[in-house]
Amino acid sequence: MRGNVFIVGLGLIGGSLALTIKKQHPDVIIHGYDVNEEEMNKAIILKIIDKKAESFQQGAEIADLIILSTPVLVTEKLMVQLANLQLKENVLITDTGSTKKTIVDKAKVLTEKGIQFIGGHPMAGSHKSGVTAAKEQLFENAFYIFTPNSSQKTEQINTLKEWLSGTKARFMELTAEDHDEMTGILSHLPHVIASSLVEQAKEAEENYPLLSRLAAGGFRDITRIASSDPTMWASISLLNRDVLVRLLKQWIGKMNHITDLIQEENFDELYAFFQEAKVFRDELPVHSTGVIHSFYDLFIDIPDYPGIISEITGYLAEEKISITNIRILETREDVYGVLRISFQNEQDRSLAKECLEKRTTYDLFIQ
Ligand SMILES: NC(=O)C1=CN([C@@H]2O[C@H](COP(=O)(O)OP(=O)(O)OC[C@H]3O[C@@H](n4cnc5c(N)ncnc54)[C@H](O)[C@@H]3O)[C@@H](O)[C@H]2O)C=CC1
Ligand SMILES: O=C(O)C(=O)Cc1ccc(O)cc1
């Protein structure tokens, strides 16, 4: 592909898409725009974009492809602005927002003027934000959902898929309604719950100052996503509010029921509740990279002795397996610690697992 790609919102998602598009289509010029001047400058320094647009209008008017990767409430406003600009005749516009129904509805302001808009949502990411977190492999193997309207031609969708082929994502088409219902269940509701668990712990810390230090294991796993950007999540909660409010009421109903079971000391029904959840959770596909999975992490139960980390990284280095991050997750009361090593992709993680299985006796696991 050739031409000008204009990316608005140079954060984790905009930056990562810029990298994948440039890699796949080296002849294109990637123009970037962000209200935060610092993010734009970082994007240039890190070679994530080729040029800073002089303004939203200037970047939009020369573009063949426009990608809106801003918080969803902002995206809707930018769509209205785009409808009033002199865009190229065949420009294709897409977004990356985590909600789709209201955005696709808003697209009428564009389609009425003959401008093509196809809603998009790369369902991979992380709790990190900003252009410095951008990476080329972010979307590899993840689902990338499109929510075209009924009048959109296959040719336009195929053109968008071609632009985005460097993501190596698995493209899927859904209605905006189905998209918002499923992401509500898998992503938006869990985010609200994760943040509320953290809030509850924060309030309890006044009486139990040791609480933060003890927060490990399960609590950390279930609340990781509470570290995500608050502007992004407040916007998502408002735009998917009908679905989210319904899901929250359903969840509160379930929690009331569980509360009753606990109060009644009803072991059998509590057992059934935990058992059903375990069976469904255990059967979720492990290697998929939907909303549920976003990292290529390998966890290693290591003995706590000096030199252990260099021993492990040494084995990986000898087999030329690169790592992107390394962290001791928790120091437990017993002898073992858990080392988490992150890799760029599934292949590197499998090679690492094989390498360490061969060379060590430590327990390895993938979440
Ligand atoms: N973070 C994630 O894991 C995922 C996020 N998304 C969606 O992608 C979009 C972008 O998310 P992230 O990249 O994570 O956010 P981010 O916070 O890393 O980046 C968003 C960028 O938009 C910029 N921005 C805000 N208002 C603007 C405006 N009026 N004009 C130009 N730039 C503006 C911000 O300064 C920021 O640099 C959101 O709609 C989000 O719902 C989709 C999939 C995953
Ligand atoms: O960090 C995680 O696990 C996420 O859930 C990332 C994420 C955030 C928003 C999306 O719309 C899709 C993926």
From TrEMBL:
CDD domains: ACT_PDH-BS. It is an enzyme of class 1 (oxidoreductase). The keyword NAD applies. InterPro entries: 6-PGluconate_DH-like_C_sf (IPR008927), ACT-like_dom_sf (IPR045865), ACT_dom (IPR002912), NAD(P)-bd_dom_sf (IPR036291), PDH_C (IPR046825), PDH_N (IPR046826), Preph/Arog_dehydrog (IPR050812), Prephen_DH (IPR003099). Gene3D superfamilies: 3.30.70.260, 6-phosphogluconate dehydrogenase C-terminal like domain (1.10.3660.10), NAD(P)-binding Rossmann-like Domain (3.40.50.720). Keywords: Amino-acid biosynthesis, Aromatic amino acid biosynthesis, NAD, Oxidoreductase, Tyrosine biosynthesis. Residues 297-367 form the ACT domain. Pfam families: ACT (PF01842), PDH_C (PF20463), PDH_N (PF02153). Coiled coil: none annotated. NCBIfam families: PRK06545.1-5. This is Prephenate dehydrogenase. It comes from Heyndrickxia shackletonii.
